[in-house]
Structure formats: structure tokens, C-alpha cells
Amino acid sequence: MAVNLLDFDLEGLTAFCESLGEKKFRATQLFRWVHQKGASSFDDMSDLAKSLRDKLKDHAEVLALPVLTQHISSDGTIKWLFDVGAGDAVEAVFIPEADRGTLCVSSQAGCAVGCRFCSTGHQGFSRNLKTWEILAQLWFAEHFLRKHLGTTDRVISNVVMMGMGEPLQNYAALIPALKTMLDDHAYGLSRRRVTVSTSGVVPMMDRLGQDCPVALAVSLHAPQDALRDNLVPLNKKYPLAELMSACVRYLAHAPRDFITFEYCMLAGVNDSSEHALALLALVRDSGVPCKFNLIPFNPFPASGLTQSAPSVVQAFSNILTSGGVVTTVRKTRGDDIDAACGQLAGDVKDRTRVGDRMSKQRTVMLHLVRSPEAATHDKPIHEPSSH
Length: 387
Ligand code: SAH
Ligand code: SF4
Fold this sequence. Notes:
Number of domains: 2
Distance between the termini: 38 Å
Oligomer: single chain
Bound molecules: S-adenosyl-L-homocysteine, iron/sulfur cluster
Number of strands: 14
């Protein structure tokens, strides 16, 4: 059976090339063709010997994920829905800014953590993505955007593992994907510009610090265990004291000297001035150098939760800032196409419909994949299903 070369970091690809009786440096050449040039046909890889190309054709392939839909927001944000088979779909979101291009990547179909305010969590867990399915999101987006923008320069400068799923509950597949993002022969992203976001899988935070330190965001959402147990059920397993100690340990290895705490603002639940003061005490007592990122809640009916008013968010932010903690309020991007945080439901709730739609969408999809100029549409190519 052919192996998908998107499933390997450089070390894995080297082992694969050696298994074909090829020298180590061939792996580097191949890695560059696939990730830097976006090649998927071995015939295009002109500096590889014909004998190697023939061997590769017999044993390997570069297989992308089919794109089910593409939506482009009025602010330039693009959301792709990828088919990962058996009725599951995952989403990736490109967010262009003046000084950077960020891709938000999914790590699982669904999520087992089940946070109350997260629509992915409400869908339940379907399965872990493979390394190639994580990397295929970046591979597709980067090369699609280069074609669309008519450039050979890098378009995506930052990756955030903030799409669907809990990346640290898919650790084995995550690490080779991160290593490939960082590798100079692939995407060459700076460790400071690759962020893993976690709901707090403490043992895996320690392993990440050892195996592949990158920027870390921790989804906090509450200053006390009782409230956090309710919002982020994983807190029952790894309560705040353990989580805070893990943050301190992580910083010994991290490329940045602070942890970003994400905090989703939920009206009447976690947004009072007492909560803000308790947060200040929590981070002071645990000694975690940090920044706060307050996320306006993106409501969905099943959650039964509502957004904090902007004035409440501002007051909360002011308390943290006056307490000496740098705090930003996240701008919502792409909300006209349901691409904002926590809206990534991937339609997994409705497996049959994704399946049905796949056949109907295939023509549109193939057209899209083959002709990047389709991306110039400024309105959804396909109406989003209701989340
Ligand atoms: N599982 C990881 C990463 C994916 S979620 C984690 O939880 O960190 C990425 C971010 O989106 C997290 O901070 C999460 O708390 C936030 N989020 C989830 N649902 C949201 C919603 N409905 N509105 C706003 N932010 C949400
Ligand atoms: Fe999973 Fe993160 Fe959503 Fe919680 S917020 S359910 S950990 S994806």
C-alpha cells in the first residue's frame, strides 16, 4: 500500500527513504519538494533520479484532504471544511493580518473534553486525526494561497492549534506535524509562531516541553476549581493547582517567557469583577508569567450560555491590566462565515448530511481545488449549515 508522504516529519521520511535503499539526503530533497514547493506529482520532482521517482510511484503518494466547502469572509478570513472520511469533517481557518498570516488548524474530529461553551465539544468525539491529516490542512492552505495570490513567498507565518479538538489528546500525531511546521526544509516557522492551545492536559504539557517546545496557550475560563470543573470537565482530572505548576515547568523550555491564558467571557458565569480579582490572585500565587486573551463567547443555542456585554468585557480587562497582567480582547474574525472561535463544529453532528453533501459538492470542490481563482468569490460558495 502506498504511504502518504504528508505523514512524515524529516526523520520519518529519512527512515522511509532508507527503507527504499536511498541515501539520507534524498529525503531532504523530497521533503522540500512536498512542503516547500507543494508538489504532489513525482514527475515534477526534476532533480530526483528517474529510478527514485519510479520507486516512489510504486510505494508512495502525496495525498491531500478533499475540500468540501470554502467560505470567504468579508474581512478576508477563509474557512475550509475538509472531508476526513466516514462522514467526519474538520475545519481550518486562514486569518490574514497586515503583518502575518495565521492558520488555525484542527487536531481531532470532534473533541472528548466536552467544554460547555464549545460547539466542537457538544458534538462529542469522533477520532484523532493522523499526522498527514493535520499537515494536509497547512499544506493545502499554504499552496492554495500562494497560487491564488500569485506568489512563491510564504503566506502562512503563524499556526495556532485552535481548531477542532484537543491537540494534547492526540499527542503522537501532533509531534511530527509540529516538527514539520518548524523544519527549515518544510515550512520553517518560528517556534514562537506555532502555538498549541490546550484545555490543560497536564502530563502532555510536560512532554511537549521536552519533545517540541512551542508557544503555549492554556484555556483557563475560570479562577476556581468548582467553576472550572463545570465549564472544562478535564479540570476534575487536572485541577488548577496542578495546571498552574505545569505552566511554570513548561516555561523552563518554552520559546516565549509567558503563557497565554485564554478566557471565554460568559455572561453571569465567569465575568464579574470578583472573577477578575480571583484570576489575579491565582496567577500571582502560582507565579506564572502570563498574558490574558479574553475571547468574546460565540453563542450557539445548545450551550444555553450568552455573551458578556462589551462593557463587562472591558471592565474585566481593565481589572486584569491594572493588576499588572497584559490583557487583550480578541477581535472576532470571520464570524459572518462561522469561522470564529468555538464555531468550528465541522458538521460532525450531522454525519449523514456531510456524506450526502459530499457527492453533491464534489464537482464544486474539484473545481475549487484545481483552480485557485475560484477563491476570488467574496461570498460563500456554499451556505453554511446551521450550527
Ligand atoms: N482544545 C483546545 C484548542 C481548541 S479550542 C483548547 O480548548 O484550548 C480553541 C479556543 O477556542 C479555546 O480557548 C476555547 O476555549 C475557545 N472556544 C471554544 N468554544 C468557544 C466559543 N463558543 N466562543 C469563544 N471561544 C471558544
Ligand atoms: Fe475540546 Fe477545546 Fe472545545 Fe474544550 S474548548 S471541547 S478542549 S475543542
